[in-house]
Amino acid sequence: MAKDQSSEMTYEAAKSALDDVVARLENKDLPLDDMVTLWEQGEKLAAICEERLAGAKARLEALRPNQSDED
After folding, report:
1. Crossing angle for the helix pair 11-25 and 32-63, to the nearest 10 degrees
2. Alpha-helical segments (H) within the chain
3. What pLDDT shows up at residue 31?
4. Which of 3, 22, 39, 54 is found 20 to 30 A from 62 (Cα to Cα)?
């Protein structure tokens, strides 16, 4: 996964790719090196998902009126 691709990856695309990685990791016949590589990809994809979710949360919170404004 190239760095420039991951920076533009949507949450949905990253989640789908992460689901694929998890499914592949469930194959008990994979060689250890392949499992480690997939795990690393999964970690990167999970970080992208977390980043996108945090960004969405920040955007939503910015739309909320401040509690102090209501007093």
Report:
1. 150
2. 3-7, 11-25, 32-63, 67-70
3. 96
4. 3
